[in-house]
Write a structure and sequence with these properties.
Layout (H helix, E strand, L loop, with lengths): L1 E9 L3 H12 L4 E5 L8 H4 L4 E5 H9 L11 E3 L1 E6 L6 E6 L9 E5 H13 L4 E5 L3 E7 L2 E6 L4 E9 L6 H6 L3 E17 L6 E6 L5 E9 L2 E11 H7 L4 H11 L7 E3 L4 E10 L3 E2 L2 E3 L5 E2 L7 H17 L8 H30 L3 H16 L1 H11 L4
Parallel strand pairs: 1-2, 1-11, 2-8, 5-13, 11-19
Antiparallel strand pairs: 3-7, 4-7, 5-6, 9-10, 10-11, 12-15, 12-16, 12-17, 13-14, 14-15, 17-20, 18-19
Helix pairs in contact: 1-4, 1-8, 8-9
Length: 395
């Protein structure tokens, strides 16, 4: 059985679903597939409060395609970014306020489960979009006029454009023979959520010490208590040991690592752990195929760059296809997409990588240099404003 679609999106994570909603909202006939099977959530999974901070440009785009309106009520605004250097005897605290550069917050923090629910609700309103779980891409064959996608259920789909959103280990990218530059930072990250004694006041806080940043991102209250999502980066060996600690010991440790800035922390979800790497694909396209999100680039979880960079991919690709006349997957469109997005991704991969290396270094001299750099950025107003604008994608 051969089916015909204008666009096939391989990958049903947040990036794939955002792409499905965006292209579907523009009227394209879309098939989005996800290899994961739908299943009933366990009690532990229901407590999964992993979040993503959507920076200003991403929020504007999601609103434009009719998604943000479905999640706005469950978002927490990020009005201040607080950076703390806790490696010295005293905490060095610097606040970067969104009011310095804009009348709106830097971004908004949303639970991944809430965003996924909003995206699925949007897709259900689009009769031209079909989303299927439990399906994967087995193979792809491309030619100048179309891509043929063979699915795990035996079906074949012909399309004008194949969007690969199948992750950092993309089989589609591998089949296309496109190489990837890979860096392993010998770090891992833990993500989990906590309640705390002191209200966060919509302040996102990064605490730097050794091994990597400890970031607290505001969430709506949980059972009447102030709540935040945490991403903690450290050496991989340390993280393996931390994840298995008893709850009481773990809570004491994370309170100490946070510098006590929000009082006593109490973990309320299980920990997710993943390796910290960066990747950059040599080309963001192959014949009839566009690579987006982690298929194209992977950055450490610093400064909320990951999914926001992916949304930028989707927005640029959508603009190009909308202006492409009749052939949305032409070589001209895909080359232009590569020319626009790869330099931006490359700058983020390099920049975030440098920030991560600076954050993890140890020793008195390194600590002193980090504190001096933080003071200089905060003190020089034009520099502070430019870096804040770069950080949220306004430049």
């Amino acid at each position: 059985m051969i089916e015909r679609k204008e666009i096939v999106i391989s990958g049903g994570g947040l990036a794939g679903l955002i792409a499905a909603a965006a292209f579907g909202n523009s009227g394209y006939k879309v098939l989005c597939i996800d290899p994961k099977k739908s299943k009933n959530k366990s009690q532990q999974e229901n407590l999964d409060m992993r979040t993503t901070a959507y920076l200003q440009p991403s929020q504007i785009f999601l609103q434009k395609i009719g998604v943000w309106q479905l999640v706005d009520g469950s978002s927490a605004p990020l009005k201040t970014m607080r950076i703390i250097d806790a490696a010295g005897k005293k905490l060095t605290v610097k606040d970067f306020n969104s009011s310095d550069i804009s009348g709106t917050p830097f971004g908004w923090n949303v639970r991944n489960s809430d965003m996924r629910a909003g995206l699925l609700a949007k897709i259900k309103t689009l009769p031209n979009v079909k989303f299927e779980m439990g399906l994967s891409t087995l193979s792809t064959t491309t030619r100048s006029g179309m891509a043929r996608v063979s699915l795990s259920n035996g079906h074949i789909v012909d399309c004008s454009l194949l969007i690969a959103a199948d992750g950092r280990d993309s089989s589609i990218r591998t089949q296309a023979g496109v190489a990837v530059k890979y860096t392993d930072f010998d770090q891992s990250a833990l993500s989990f959520s906590v309640t705390h004694e002191v209200p966060h006041n919509n302040i996102s806080t990064e605490v730097h010490k050794t091994g990597g940043p400890f970031t607290l991102v505001p969430l709506p209250d949980f059972e009447g208590k102030p709540c935040s999502a945490i991403v903690w980066m450290d050496n991989s060996e340390n993280m393996d040991q931390l994840k298995s600690l008893p709850n009481t010991v773990f809570d004491n440790l994370i309170t100490e690592r946070s510098g006590g800035v929000l009082g006593k922390l109490t973990s309320i979800t299980y920990c997710n752990k993943w390796p910290i790497v960066s990747q950059l694909t040599d080309y963001f396209y192959a014949e009839r195929t566009a690579f987006i999100a982690e298929t194209a680039h992977v950055v450490p979880p610093i400064g909320a760059q990951g999914l926001n960079l992916s949304i930028g991919d989707i927005e640029a690709l959508l603009q190009l296809t909308d202006s492409s006349a009749n052939d949305i997957g032409s070589l001209k469109v895909l080359k232009k997409y590569h020319q626009i997005r790869r330099p931006i991704a490359q700058s983020r991969v390099i920049g975030v990588g440098l920030l991560n290396r600076a954050s993890k270094v140890e020793g008195t001299m390194a600590t002193h240099a980090r504190a001096m750099g933080l003071n200089a950025i905060h003190k020089i107003k034009p520099l502070r404003h430019v870096l804040m604008q770069l950080g949220i994608g306004l430049r």
